[in-house]
Amino acid sequence: MKHLYVIGGTMGAGKTAVCRELQKLLPHNVFLDGDWCWDMQPFVVNEENKRMVTNNITCLLRSFLGNSGFQNILFCWVLQEDAIWQGIAANLPLQNVAVHRVTLTVSEQALRLRLQRDVDAGLRAPDVIERSVARLPLYDRVRTVKLDVSSCTARQAAQQIAAMGR
Question: pTM for this one?
């Protein structure tokens, strides 16, 4: 049986870092970060681009699921609403696939510290802090397993998520 790990959370929660650690723990895996499909200049959020990004994510996940060489598919994205995942999942062949949906939750204080480090290092724009904090309450309504990563490492979070698939 294949396993699809869907990791959501606000910007700075550690989704990419956790998935990179999951890659070290899970055999025969492939990783898709939904942000890669938004890596465009200029960054324009409009309906056409939203459709394109969702279609690209769906296409890649469908290909990964259909590839006999992959047992574990890792996908992360902000996923602040169930409807976002449902729109993608509706177009995936999920028969005989165990789907593990996890939201990385984080305290506001820990989130601010993490994002400020990224801002200071030039990895993120300063406005990301308030935008990310504003999204925190949205994740309370998402129907997923919640994993508080405020005081754990990406490796520790990955170990907990990997255990879900056993």
Answer: 0.95
